[in-house]
Amino acid sequence: MRLDKYLSQSGERSRSEAGKLIRSGAVRVDGQVVLRPETQLSAQSVVTLAGETVEDSSMQYVMLHKPAGVLTAVRDSRAQTVMDLVPEALKRRKVLPVGRLDKDTTGLLLLTNDGELAHRLLSPARHVWKQYRATVEGRLTQADVDAFAAGLQLSDFTAKPARLSIVEADDARSVALVEVHEGKFHQVKRMFAAVGHEVTALHRHSFGTLALPQDLPVGACRPLTDEEVQALRECTALKNESKDKGPSDGRGTTNG
Fold it and tell me: Does residue 250 carry a pLDDT above 70?
C-alpha cells in the first residue's frame, strides 16, 4: 500500500494532506524519514507521524449517543442529522448509521463503513437483539407482556415475539424494557400502540453485544474498542477474513 493512502485511511487526514506531511519530513517508516508519498509499505512496516505510531484502518466503527430532535440521516436541508455530530474525519471514511432511530428517540446508534457487518446486524435472520427503555401512557400489565411474547398483529405485518419487562407501572404512566430483533418502521411504538399504550419517550440501551456506556455524553461519539468490534462480529457469525470489505449502505429501517 502507498504511504499516503495508509495515512489517509482512517479519514483523519485527506490524501493530499498526508502527502504534504510526508514531504515535510514528519513521517518515518521503520525509523527512517520518508519524503515520497508513493513509498510502498509492507505488512510489517511501522509508520510514525511526529513520533507517534500511526495505525490507520480502512474500517471504522463508532457509537453515538443520539439526542432527541436529530434525524438519523446522512443529510437534510432543514434539520440537524446524526452526521452533523460526527467528526469530519469519519465522514471522509463514509461511515453510515446502522439502522435508524426516530427523530425523538435517543440512545445508542452504531455507525460504520463495514457494509457486511451492518447488513448482518440488521438482518432478521441473525436475531440481533436491541433493547429499549420505553415510557408509555397508562398501566402496563402481564397481559401486555404476554402479548409481546406471542407476537403482535400490526396493520401491515405481524411483529415477531419480543421481550417486555415492566420496570414500574401506575394508572398514569409505565416504564418498561423491551427487546426486539426486527427493525420495521416505528416498530416499537407501533407494538405499544397495538396494546393501547402511547410511547412518550424511547431510549435505546443496547444493540447486540454493544451497550451504551453511562459516561458517553448525549451528542458525543467514540470509536469502538477492538473487543467491542470483535464481539459484534462474533454475534453475527462474521469471520475476520471479511473485515476489509469496502463500505456499503447499512442504513436500514427505523425501529424506534
Answer: no
